[in-house]
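Archive maintenance. Older records in this collection stored only the sequence; we are now back-filling the structure field for every entry so that each record is complete. The fields below show one back-filled record exactly as it appears after the update. Entries are processed alphabetically, and Carboxypeptidase regulatory-like domain-containing protein is next in the queue.

ARCHIVE ENTRY
Title: Carboxypeptidase regulatory-like domain-containing protein
Organism field: Natronosalvus hydrolyticus
Length field: 150
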Amino acid sequence: MERRPEFSRDQRAIEGLPIRLVIALVVGVASLAIMMSMLGGVGTISETEVDVEPVPVTVDADTSTDVELTVIGDDGNTVSEATVIVSSESAWLDSAAKGTTDDDGQVQLSLEPELKQGQRIGTLQVDIVPPTNSDYVDDQANTEIVVIES
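Back-filled structure field:
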């Protein structure tokens, strides 16, 4: 007659159990962290970054120039009722120029930038304040207007 081992007296069966539980717990927590980070990005999907397309992109210094600025979301749609602010950066404006886009997402601003003595090229900064009841955001740098010596 073959004798079967009695599992109630066998102490070896429990030796590998704690380490397997720890490994399963670590893998489970890591998987949960990955899933939560994927779900964490779901709320930001509805936000659309905006940028501006100035025409012309380059303007002459010490000359008054009308610049047409079109605000466009990264979804390709124009943005109406956005406030566009053009201010000094490495080129100088007497005061910041501001306007609100129309239904076509466009605003026209008259700019008369100046360059410092000896400076041949400079830029004007363009900031966008998206409409308040929209999912548009302006978190990244926008296209700049380049000012050149005339």
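Update note: The chain has a mean pLDDT of 85. The beta strands are 48-55, 58-60, 65-73, 83-88, 97-100, 106-111, 121-129, 136-137, 145-148.
Entry marked complete.
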